[in-house]
Amino acid sequence: MPDAEVLFYPCLFNAADCEQLFATLEAEIAWRQDSATIFGRHHLLPRLTAWYGDPGKTYRYSGISMEPLPWTPTLRQIKVAIETVAEVEFNSVLLNFYRHGQDSMGWHSDDEPELGPNPVIGSVSLGGCRRFLLRHKGNKSIPKVELNLTNGSLLLMQGPTQHFWQHHVPKTRRTVDPRINLTFRVIQ
Prior knowledge:
- This is Oxidoreductase, 2OG-Fe(II) oxygenase family.
- By secondary structure, the protein is an alpha+beta fold.
- It has three helices and 14 strands.
């Protein structure tokens, strides 16, 4: 991928760990369904979210402001595992719970000012496999990139990626298992 630094680890966590982590997160995370204002109208986000991290690491996107809840032991366990691979110390995590195929994430870049100039995003997937698409922002002749985010995978997006690329999780009519996605970040 030109203008990007993307690394994919399809099996960072084994199947037994994934099952245990998913069940624990589904039960213990304080899930919420926020709404965003688009063209002056409020719309419920098509997924559940949660924000955890170090004290004071507030995150704002799409008109939503999230104050961090304190790290749980399970979130710390996942954080330590991916920090070893990413060689980055993350201070926060945005969790997305995709309950079914109609839950999705629209095209966007993780380029909010509090993430700094070249953010490192460590994205862990647990549960059902979902399609993940990337497209170049400025050069439409560069083909889209498609990944299947498998159970237990880690996707690292770093360097200039967020400057030049957008990504999204599209809706699907196929029957898919629920998926929890954890995107670890460093809030400046």
